[in-house]
Automatic annotation (TrEMBL):
It is found in: Secreted. InterPro entries: ConA-like_dom_sf, DUF1349, EF_Hand_1_Ca_BS, EF_hand_dom, GH, Glyco_hydro_5, Ig-like_fold, MAN-like. It comes from Halococcoides cellulosivorans. Residues 723-755 form the EF-hand domain. One of its GO terms (cellular component) is extracellular region. PROSITE patterns: EF_HAND_1, EF_HAND_2, PKD, TAT. Keywords: Glycosidase, Hydrolase, Secreted, Signal. One of its GO terms (molecular function) is mannan endo-1,4-beta-mannosidase activity. It catalyses: Random hydrolysis of (1->4)-beta-D-mannosidic linkages in mannans, galactomannans and glucomannans. GO terms for biological process: polysaccharide catabolic process. This is mannan endo-1,4-beta-mannosidase. It holds the Pfam family PKD_4.
Length: 755
């Protein structure tokens, strides 16, 4: 696929299929789906009977849909603003999408069949990372029955060439389409979040996966199928795909995403007949489906009416629709109930009618002990109400907030606070670790105190502290939360801290977007005089934003950006030359695909700087050269800017012995202080991941990834699950089983053959 104008990098995900085809599905089937990495701090949402649970205690979830945050042209600021609104209102659940098919503008998730746009995936990374920080859990939906952003129709058109809703039955039965769907699911589940470093299937921020949004199979879309065939195709797909998700991800719950229609012998209309091929009770008795989904739209569904409007044509009112589903889960299904979409259309009715019905429906959900509810949809005040279904805080906010108070009081044991700690598993000396207590809560009040012990003799009292360790080791981290009455709860984790290798520097910097009259960053510099050439290997960037920057820099004064030159890499935009003169910052982009790891070279010859990059330290490409007005005596070094004002970007620079004796400082009015740490240790003799891997036969290849002293199937699975990740590729010398100089699926097969 050609690159888009936003310079995203799509990729094809076929790892699982290639491996199974090569090794034989029967031989490795029992391995696929085992966790690839340990879960971060925080409990996964579970179930017990008809209740959601967290750590064994009851959990009730309440929130909203918001498709605006995953719209293919959505910006990160909208994500931040929406999540801040939800947190302020006491909501704890957000339902949104992980799909977009066939579009080529902005960041569509899957612009071509089997190809995923990296910028869209990074935007989803940001959503998951920020949800965690705001104490929100997510319902993420894999596909859409409706064609708003591609949907089932696009899958069918890609494979069969047929377009239009008359061909939607193929989505459920065509094997090539089913494989495209599985490929998309695998891409999401096995992705390592570029911000948190955690695989999606290992992240408890996600409360549940949803197989599809409102799937159904009506006669007009499957004329060639009998009702038995339609039900068989529909439920067969649900059974197969829920099992597939469970195979890859046993940690998370799965919702069907259906609207909750019943199939009953005396069904009066499509709400209770077999017309949609849905049967709420039958679908949710499928083993792989954990959560009972239903929706409610009196505006769209004939026969479902608002109570004040009920008449001769009414089959059920909204309250009755809720009661029917509560009864079904209690008497037949035995799983938690989740009302995924509901609202009153304010255009056809009124805001006052909406207020009245929302209160009645929430009362009924509370009385029926429903586990979760997400209204459609709470938006920012600046969002236009394009369809009559947008909910605004200044209108209906108090109703949602009151229900949030009710479900919070029912969660936990009713009085003792819940402590839920999150934090990094691994850090380098001097690297900031973001710890959090965002999922901690008090059922009957609020948490008043946070008491952190970081295991190195230091403590903290913030809800989301950032901590750096000054020495390597394994540290036990404890969080104790207290409520207003003095009740306490504690949660713990551990973090392994490794030394920074010699001649390596870890730099962290915040800052606004570098442009025009703004240059905010963290610099580590040494004095330089006259002409010079400096090189460094930028090994990696832990970027919070796609336009974060890291590179080599020369500056007249480390406290003043008005005269500087730099060779820079950005995750999304490649290499560039950055210069500041005449009161303006200029960014001259190469618009290439240069991303870490990459060697950088900065040269000054007279009044001109030259900026070059190299993938191997030998073959150099000059990006740009340009003049700068700078003193003979200046400062040269490295810099990092997150271009996300309140968060840090971390970068690792190797081969920087010339920075010995450096001084570091923030440039500009940054919101979060940066830091720089020069390594005094040595490069590790073994792999840095997994920490406990061993080399049983002493040949320099660490075949025993689990550290139990033998080479077995869990070792094969762990290498298979992580082959393309930075954890393995950064330790390639230690996992090159077949000795060809690369770590790929051939190494997995070679390890498999050893077992």
């Amino acid at each position: 696929m050609t690159r888009h104008t936003d310079h995203s990098e799509p990729r094809s995900t076929t790892t699982r299929r290639r491996f199974l085809a090569a090794a034989g599905a029967s031989a490795v089937g029992g391995l696929v789906g085992l966790p690839a990495t340990a879960a971060p701090g925080g409990e996964f949402v579970g179930t017990e009977g008809t209740s959601f649970t967290l750590g064994g205690d009851p959990l009730y979830l309440n929130g909203s849909n918001n498709f605006w945050i995953t719209n293919r042209c959505a910006e990160r600021q909208r994500v931040d603003d929406v999540f801040q609104l939800y947190e302020e209102m006491g909501l704890n659940l957000v339902r949104t999408w992980t799909f977009c098919e066939g579009h080529t503008d902005c960041h569509c998730m899957q612009p071509e069949p089997g190809v995923h746009d990296e910028s869209a995936l990074k935007h989803l990374d940001y959503i998951v990372a920020r949800a965690r920080e705001h104490g929100l859990r997510l319902v993420l939906t894999f596909a859409d029955f409706w064609p708003h952003s591609g949907g089932f129709d696009q899958y069918v058109e890609w494979v069969t060439g047929n377009s239009g809703k008359g061909y939607r039955a193929a989505f459920y039965v065509n094997e090539e389409i089913r494989e495209l769907y599985r490929n998309h699911v695998e891409t999401i589940l096995t992705r390592t979040n570029s911000i948190t470093g955690v695989e999606y299937r290992e992240d408890p921020t996600i409360a549940m996966w949803e197989l599809a949004n409102e799937p159904r199979l009506e006669p007009k879309w499957a004329d060639q199928l009998s009702i038995d065939d339609r039900v068989g195709a529909f439920e067969g797909w649900m059974d197969d795909m829920s099992a597939y998700v469970k195979d890859l991800d046993p940690n998370h719950l799965i919702s069907s995403g259906v609207e909750g229609f019943f199939t009953r012998p005396d069904g009066e209309n499509f709400l209770y007949s077999d017309w949609t091929a849905q049967d709420f009770e039958s679908v949710h008795q499928i083993d792989g489906i954990d959560v009972c989904s239903f929706h409610m739209y009196p505006h769209h569904w004939p026969g479902l009416d608002l109570e004040p409007n009920a008449g001769a044509e009414t089959v059920a009112t909204g309250v009755e629709w809720i009661r029917d589903h509560v009864q079904a889960v209690e008497e037949t299904v035995g799983k938690p109930l989740y009302l995924g979409e509901f609202n009153v259309n304010a255009d056809s009715q009124s805001v006052s009618m909406r207020q009245d019905r929302l209160e009645a429906w929430y009362d009924e959900l509370d009385a029926g002990d429903a586990g979760a509810a997400t209204a459609w949809q709470l938006v920012l005040e600046s969002t236009s109400d394009h369809d009559g279904f947008q909910i605004y805080r200044n209108q209906s906010g108090p109703i949602l907030e009151a229900y949030a108070d009710r479900v919070r009081a029912k969660s936990g044991d009713g009085s003792t606070p819940i402590a839920d700690l999150s934090g990094p598993e691994d850090l380098l000396v001097g690297e900031s670790g973001a710890f959090g207590a965002s999922y901690s809560f008090d059922p009957d009040g609020s948490i008043s105190d946070y008491d952190w012990s970081f295991g190195d003799g230091t403590s903290g009292s913030e809800s989301a502290p950032v901590h750096r360790y000054s020495a390597p080791g394994t540290y036990d981290v404890d969080l104790t939360v207290s409520d207003e009455t003095g009740n306490e709860a504690t949660d713990s984790t551990s973090v392994t801290v490794e030394d920074v290798p010699e001649d390596t520097m870890i730099v962290e910097g915040a800052g606004k977007t570098v442009s025009d009259t703004t240059f905010e960053a963290h610099l580590a510099t040494v004095p330089v005089s006259g002409d010079f050439t400096r090189e460094a290997h930028l090994d990696w960037m832990d970027a919070t934003a796609g336009d974060a920057q890291a590179g080599l820099i020369v500056v007249d004064d480390p406290a003043d950006w008005s005269s500087l030159g730099a060779v820079t890499l950005t995750p999304d935009d490649g290499a560039e030359q950055t210069r500041a003169y005449s009161g303006t910052v200029w960014r001259e982009r190469a618009e290439d695909d240069s991303t870490p790891p990459m060697d950088l070279r900065l040269e000054r010859a007279g009044g001109t700087i030259h900026c070059s990059v190299s993938p191997d330290g030998e073959s150099w490409t000059e990006i740009e050269s340009g003049e700068i007005d700078m003193s003979e005596d200046a400062f040269v070094g490295v810099y990092v800017s997150s271009n996300s004002p309140e968060t840090l970007c971390t970068a690792r620079f190797d081969d920087v012995s010339w920075l010995d004796g450096f001084e570091s400082r923030d440039m500009g009015d940054v919101a979060v202080a940066g830091a720089a740490t020069m390594g005094g240790g040595s490069d590790p003799e073994g792999p840095t991941w997994p920490i406990n891997a061993t080399d049983p036969d002493g040949d320099g290849v660490y075949e025993d990834l689990s550290g139990n002293g033998v080479v077995d199937f869990p070792d094969v699975n762990r290498l298979f699950q992580n082959t393309d990740t930075a954890d393995v590729q950064d330790n390639a010398d230690f996992y090159d089983v077949d000795g060809d100089g690369d770590v790929d699926m051939q190494d997995v097969l070679a390890l498999f053959e050893m077992v």
